[in-house]
Design brief:
about 290 residues, mainly alpha, 8 helices
């Protein structure tokens, strides 16, 4: 027992006040935490800040390569591939930095087995990645909600009440239209009401994955009254528009699915890089020598 105590106290800096190697007789390792939250939070803030910086840089590069003129600038497919590659790169760099700082700035565990130190470093890096992701997501969600809320909501209503009433109104507009639907729709010069009602019918049909025969017939009446087409021609145009709308919705659904899969790959890569970088920072932390 005395030899073990002497082996610990003989290490460089063991008897220095506040040293990582200071030995307290009778103290158990169970009283110390295996997570260095100060290092974890510091690494998470750094990773979140670096992620926002790289996101801004990627947005600027993407917008600079897009042109409103035809046959000029990068194509949509190229922009999409570049955005995915930049997203993965951002996650790798930001997460690796967060994990490295979490491992390098942690408290030095002098009397812990090497395998346990490796596990703790990996966990600290993963915690730094997780906290940074939550912080970044919260910031982006708050910014998006502020932008959408400031531009889309009416000035009279704000906050939760306005959002609730807007969603409720959008859900009931289609059913309100069916109450006042006429067999002979009257179309004015501006036709704002007819266009809005047709849009609600299409939105409801796409949501239900089908447009009823009654809705198609009414849309054909609206189109015939507005354009002067015959009833068969108006019905054919309605069917073509519904088919095109379904194809557009299907393309958007596939694009969202692909984005979700690549987002999963990027986040998974970030978690791995953060955990591995924390072990590198931890090893460098343990090799520090006192002067």
């Amino acid at each position: 027992m005395e030899q073990n105590i002497r082996a610990v106290t003989d290490r460089p800096g063991a008897d220095r006040p506040g040293s990582d190697f200071s030995y307290e007789r009778g103290k158990s390792e169970a009283h110390s935490s295996g997570v260095s939250w100060a290092a974890v939070i510091g690494g998470a803030f750094t990773g979140a800040a670096l992620s926002l910086i790289l996101l801004s840089l990627g947005t600027g590069l993407g917008l600079s390569s897009v042109s409103p003129w035809s046959n000029t600038g990068a194509s949509a497919q190229t922009i999409g591939r570049g955005a995915i590659a930049w997203l993965i790169f951002t996650q790798i760099v930001a997460s690796a930095m967060a994990g490295y700082l979490a491992g390098r700035l942690r408290t030095k565990w002098a009397t812990i087995h090497t395998d346990e130190v490796y596990f703790r470093d990996t966990a600290n890096g993963f915690f730094a990645w997780a906290v940074g992701i939550v912080m970044t997501a919260a910031f982006l969600a708050s910014a998006a909600a502020s932008i959408i809320g400031g531009t889309a909501q009416p000035p009279v209503l704000s906050g939760t009440a306005a959002a609730g009433k807007t969603v409720q109104a959008d859900a009931n507009d289609y059913f309100v239209d069916t109450l006042f639907r006429s067999d002979h729709p009257v179309v004015g010069n501006s036709d704002v009401v007819g266009r809005e009602e047709a849009g609600r019918i299409l939105a409801h049909g796409l949501k239900q994955n089908d447009v009823s025969a009654a809705d198609k017939n009414y849309l054909a009446q609206l189109v015939a009254a507005r354009t002067g087409l015959s009833k068969p021609e108006a019905e054919q145009r309605v069917n073509e528009v519904i088919t095109d709308a379904r194809q557009s919705a299907d393309v958007a659904r596939k694009a969202l699915a692909h984005l979700s899969l690549w987002m999963f790959i990027a986040l998974l890569s970030g978690a791995f890089c953060a955990s591995y970088a924390a072990t590198i920072g931890g090893r460098q932390r343990d090799r520090v020598k006192y002067v």
